[in-house]
TrEMBL record:
PROSITE patterns the UniProt entry points to: FIBRINOGEN_C_1 (PS00514), FIBRINOGEN_C_2 (PS51406)
Organism: Sphaeramia orbicularis (orbiculate cardinalfish)
TM stretches of this protein: 20-41
Top-level division of the source organism's lineage: Eukaryota
Keywords recorded for this protein, A-Z: Calcium, Chitin-binding, Disulfide bond, Glycoprotein, Membrane, Metal-binding, Signal-anchor, Transmembrane, Transmembrane helix
Gene that encodes the chain: fibcd1b
Entry protein name: Fibrinogen C domain containing 1
Cross-referenced NCBIfam families: GGGWT_bact (NF040941)
Length: 267
């Protein structure tokens, strides 16, 4: 129904010409605006970057709906660090959650979104295949020193027809930051857990180093390792970022987060 065919509407016969014209103008305006309202109210955020672009500025839990995961899931959004818009995919902070888990747990995700958690390989894949993403890793040691590593290229299972069968391989590159690059060695590697060995070592790196990661032979980082407190006598089995603190210092805090790649001017 539009303003132009309003005069032929039986229910409005008997209305004055002025009222019909006014009502018709209002109806035309509603018809014009409806698609715009649909776009603004009906479009759902694909990630925390979309939420930031829509005006959200508070850190916290939000629902996102990636293109290839339309049912959506909850994530923690960091809206303050380095321009905001980050979707958190991993956090370690107090040792309250067991990270020495099997493949199914790492695929589906575990933990508490507001605390220690792993978002899930399936969810990380759904996010990162939507476009070009960057990764930021924030680190803190037990002396309260902080550092970060940022990668202008990031993806999980980007070129996989069946990412689960293919092992959710890592794509990462274009490092910047002050923590040193402890992830490039893992570029192209499949994810390994204690019950699924996809690494290039004779041993299962996940079992040997008490974690789960994109191990090669074996690692320069191990952010899903066991929660030890600083210096430890065991070798490389804690929350390690070797280029910053070596292989025998387990970090107090780590947080991995991704967002759509931005132009340098918009950061």
């Amino acid at each position: 129904l539009t303003g132009t065919n309003l005069k032929q509407t039986p229910a409005l016969r008997g209305w004055s010409k002025r009222h019909v014209l006014l009502f018709g103008a209002m109806l035309d305006l509603i018809n014009f605006m409806s698609p715009l309202f649909h776009l603004s109210l009906g479009s759902r955020p694909r990630d925390c970057g979309d939420l930031y672009a829509s005006g959200q500025r508070e850190d916290g839990i939000y629902s996102v709906f990636p293109v290839h995961h339309p049912s959506g899931f909850q994530v923690y959004c960091d809206m303050t660090t380095d321009g905001g818009g980050w979707t958190v995919i991993q956090r370690r902070e107090d040792g309250s959650v067991n990270f020495f888990r099997g493949w199914d747990s790492y695929r589906e995700g575990f933990g508490k979104i507001t605390g220690e958690h792993w978002l899930g390989l399936k969810q990380i894949h759904a996010l990162s295949i939507q476009g070009n993403y960057e990764l930021r890793i924030d680190l803190e040691d037990f002396e309260n020193s902080t550092a970060y590593a940022q990668y202008g290229t990031f993806g999980v299972g980007l070129f996989s027809v069946d990412p689960d069968d293919d092992g959710y391989p890592l794509t990462v590159g274009d490092y910047s930051g002050n923590a040193g690059d402890s992830l490039l060695k893992h570029n192209g590697m499949k994810f390994t857990t204690k019950d699924r060995d996809n690494d290039h070592s004779e041993n299962n790196c996940a079992s040997f180093y008490h974690g789960a990661w994109w191990y090669r032979n074996c690692h320069t980082s191990n952010l899903n390792g066991q929660y030890l407190r600083g210096q430890h006598t065991s070798y490389a089995d804690g929350i390690e970022w070797s280029s910053w603190t070596g292989w025998q210092y387990s970090l107090k805090f780590s947080e991995m987060k991704i967002r759509p790649t931005r132009d340098p001017e918009s950061k």
